[in-house]
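Worked example 2:
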Amino acid sequence: MKILIIEDDERVGSFLARGLKAEGYLTLLLSDGLHAHDTIKQFEPEVIILDRMLPQLDGITLCQQLRSQQVNARILILSALSEVDERVKGLRAGADDYLGKPFHFEELLARIEVLAKRSSNIEHSRQLQVADLVLDLDSMRVQRAGNEISLTAKELGILELLMSNSGKVYSRERILTNVWGMNEDPLTNIVDVYLARLRKKIDDAYPVKLLHTRRGIGYCLQVE
């Protein structure tokens, strides 16, 4: 399988090229995105490992351009910007996966293997579902009873956290840590405010309520 690596950090790019070559992949390394279009036409990679913060042409813009040109290669974005809203931007730009830096090489290999198994003719979808509430992890789109629900990046982060372990109660502190990356109390009710917004969007119009408050403990998402 052919893998195109677009990475401006010489140390990281060289490491990826050597490591993937040792695993039996045919690799090609570019240090910027300006020549990516011509290279992709000639090299025809099955997978593209794309750095988010490239000089001159950033990875998000390049990803959008490739998708608009119907490039079918699987795209995995690598970035030090790994918070939920940044991952959402990458996935919405057309990336198939998003891996934060620093990363473990074994995890990168596993993600490449998953991408390689995806048929170019069949859209693969990873989903979380609780009752009639569905979160597509590839497109970060949310539906309830077939109705599209528009959420902000932080609301998506909270929903993904709660749906990934349906029925598990998450304290405000754990939600702050997982979604905001904060390890201390900001002395505001920011979590309660966002949970109220999320409840209004996913529960208010439906008879079966999924988002529940456990007084003095936290929040969970499940069918009761």
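The chain has eight helices and eleven strands. Residues 33 and 57 are 6 Å apart (CA to CA).
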